[in-house]
Amino acid sequence: MKAFAFPLLVLLALSTCPCYAQIVPSMVTSSMKILPGGDIEIRATYKMEPGPIPVFLEDPFSLKRVFQKNQELADGTKIEKQTPSVLHYQDSAGRFRAEYPFRRPANFPSRFDLPPQVEIIDSVAGYHYVLDTVHRVAHRGRITIIPTRPSAQSAQKGKPNPTPGDGARPQHTMEPLGNREIDGVPLEGRRTTTTFPAGSTMGNDRPVSIVSEEWSVPGSSMPPFRKISDPRSGDETAASYDIVRGEPDPGLFQIPPDFQIVDESGPFAVTYTFSFAQKPIR
């Protein structure tokens, strides 16, 4: 299937909002230190929340998420940053898999590639897995789930909805954007504008407006397309590509047979060692 490409890419950063199917990455921190022999050790700490976690039934899909930030400084300098893509898979039973880039520590040499992070929510068995693909270990934590079905409520429901401010607090306005269809996938859009009046708590001497545009798939838990335009920080967008509506490969939600399963009841750590002598990561 062709990638989603249309003039207005819209955004979503990984959030904890339970309205859309996704795993919030369990990595809490990543740090780097130089070992006595000159090798580099990366230590990643994780914490898996026990839930309850909403899982979405009868809503299978696969997609790739891409996040981008664009900013123009006062002197005209343009900054553009795009993060590596995140892969999402969900089946009809509510199982969910995410593959996302490793949180790279500051000053880590660019010559080394860090392993991808893989997490699985097995809603049927009641487990959350973090896969260590280097050491072939599946860290497993018990979870409770909330089975649900995506709401079919339309993003267009209602009329533009201004919320008046009181002279200091911001005013919020919601505007339906109508419907569109991309590669056979129907989308519904809305625009939310938050205006901070002059003299608000941000210290502005004239009104400042932050605009968020969102396009979602009615009746699906697929993460929406969004774009946030903030005059202070620029534009942040996230878009979904390579969308397939249907069952992913069942093997994506299974632990490979050569992996050791380790049960975790609290925070845990994984270490990786890199050598300038070109030895494999270990």
Quickly list its features.
13-stranded mixed β-sheet, disordered N terminus, globular, 282 residues, 3-stranded antiparallel β-sheet, 2 domains, mainly beta, 18 strands
In words, what does this structure look like?
The protein is mostly beta strands. The protein folds into two domains: 1-151 and 234-282, no CATH class; 153-218, no CATH class. 0% of the residues lie in helices and 46% in strands. The protein has strands spanning 27-34, 40-46, 53-56, 61-72, 78-82, 86-90, 96-100, 117-122, 127-132, 137-142, 145-148, 171-182, 185-196, 208-216, 225-230, 234-244, 260-263, 268-274. The strands form three sheets. Strands 4, 5, 6, 7, 8, 9, 10, 12, 13, 14, 15, 16 and 17 form a 13-stranded mixed beta sheet that branches. The two termini are 37 Å apart.
In short:
The protein is an all-beta fold. It has no helices and 18 strands.
Computed structural class:
mainly beta
How many strands? 18
Number of H/I helices:
0
> Assembly state here?
single chain
- The coarse silhouette is globular
Helix content: under 10%
Query: What average pLDDT do the residues reach?
Result: 84
User: Any low-confidence stretches, pLDDT <50, length ≥5?
Assistant: 1-21
SSE arrangement, N to C: EEEEEEEEEEEEEEEEEE
Largest pleated sheet: 13 strands, mixed
- Portion in strands: over 45%
Structural domain tally: 2
